[in-house]
Inverse folding.
């Protein structure tokens, strides 16, 4: 198997793992702020636990094929986020989703680089979502 083929297989395996983790975490939750935050937290945790694989994928971004793979991964996350934001009643969900995906990715990269969870960055992202959506506090929604 070529390096490119192995990289693509790794990417697909990791992507399935991330999507499965999000699906398991949000199973049974009604659309709304709580499900949105639980899904994002599940994404971060899955990325954090798989940071060695994520690092390999990020390092491979030098080649065009892996750049396309990363773009596909971002697009899938954007679509999931847009769907969740629409379910929360956010009017500009499609406009906000790419910004939110970029912020989530920034936290993911920082945690992978630091090799530790960074709660302050996670809280900042939640503040970003709250300020851009007008949703009630996501922290309060999760605690409920």
């Amino acid at each position: 198997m070529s390096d490119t083929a192995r990289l693509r297989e790794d990417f697909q395996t990791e992507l399935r793992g991330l999507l499965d983790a999000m699906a398991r975490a949000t199973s049974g939750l009604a659309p709304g702020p709580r499900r949105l935050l639980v899904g994002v937290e599940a994404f971060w945790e899955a990325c954090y636990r798989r940071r060695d694989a994520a690092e390999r994928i990020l390092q491979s971004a030098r080649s065009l094929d892996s750049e396309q793979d990363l773009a596909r991964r971002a697009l899938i996350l954007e679509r999931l986020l847009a769907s969740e934001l629409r379910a929360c009643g956010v009017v500009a969900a499609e406009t906000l989703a790419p910004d939110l995906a970029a912020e989530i990715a920034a936290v993911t990269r920082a945690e992978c680089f630091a090799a530790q969870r960074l709660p302050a960055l996670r809280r900042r992202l939640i503040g970003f979502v709250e300020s851009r959506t007008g949703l009630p506090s996501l922290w309060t929604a999760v605690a409920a």
Q: What stands out?
A: DSSP finds seven helices and no strands in the chain. Residues 88 and 140 are 15 Å apart (CA to CA). The longest helix spans residues 3-26.
